[in-house]
Task: structure prediction
Amino acid sequence: MNFDKIKDIDLFNPYILIFIMVSFVLISLPIHFTSYLLPNPSYQLFLYIFLGFLFYFFGIIISKKFLFKLNFLEKLESIQSYISIEKSNHETIHDFKIYLKELPLFGQYSKTELILILLILFSLFLQIINFYFLGGIPLFSGILKAQSTGKLWFISFIIFLPSINILLAKYNRKAHYLLFFIGIILFALTGYRTTPIAIFLSCFISLYYTRHIPIKYIILFLALISILLVTVGFVAVKSIEWQNWSLNPLELISYRAAFTLNILDKVIYLQGIAGGKLFYYTLTGYFTHVDPRILVGEIVLSKSTSITSTILGPGLLDFGAIGMFIQMFFIGFTLKTLHIIQSYKHNISTAFYAIILAQSIIWIETGPTDIVIWIFYLIAISIIIYTLLNLKIKINN
Result:
């Protein structure tokens, strides 16, 4: 295979979210053709998926027009001081293995690097303390899994994810990859697929934009993340004491996708019924102890169980089609704006673009019902505003 033909393609531009959604639908189809476990999807389901991502596409287009109209693209290109990526990161790496071998293990550390390392170690320590208070490993117990994402997990994750992304993107050192893998293992032990995948995916996106990684290693990464997705999901489901599954790991992936789309299909006929409760409890869930996904289960299935409804479901259930359109437009606009900024300014903007893109990809299944992700979106918006205002000041001066 000639990898050179596709090496210049920006694989992680915001359009990837559309590709992931189409893939998610395709993954769900085998379970419909091979079993009668779930009803076939209605045509309304595909219509609302199309409309939702049409407004996501509009958000991307308006973002580009907005920056172009304000002449910010020309300003970003003209100010060399805003291109903070190291010169070595611009050079093509012909052999990534050799590159990794040449990375220093230890050496002189900057103050910023040391602060990031200390933050990461503190977050990992909090996760270990979390397991200690739980009295076991949540990956192997459905009861512990339900209790594993409390305040300690929240603080640990919200510190670890941006810190490890900035560290890997900004500083080349072998020891940093050890912290990365320890973090993946500890967060995978909670039994939730989303957190280790968010770490793995966001860090890879950060490295993708700050290092020239050959396409063959990108393919290897996709294979590894697929294995991680299947393994953690299968082990976690099998460890839930009150559920019995006869499906193999691949069938389970297809079933989970089909079930989630089936929930979205039901939500279409219940749109607006939540009246903003999902969004309210997303923001206040850690204080009110109300899980918005359990609220989805109570509304849609009349069962007190955690249910996901894709990236489109919560907005649709809360505020109807208008809410879904606004949400998808906002996500598209924010992702594209930060994507453009980070393409000129490889620093913290790259790290947070990687974080919110990775989380948005995960939202394809889970939906935007996590306060921690909205916090990252808020930080990303702050970075956008700061960059544009600061750039305007520099131009005027």
Remarks:
- DSSP finds 16 helices and no strands in the chain.
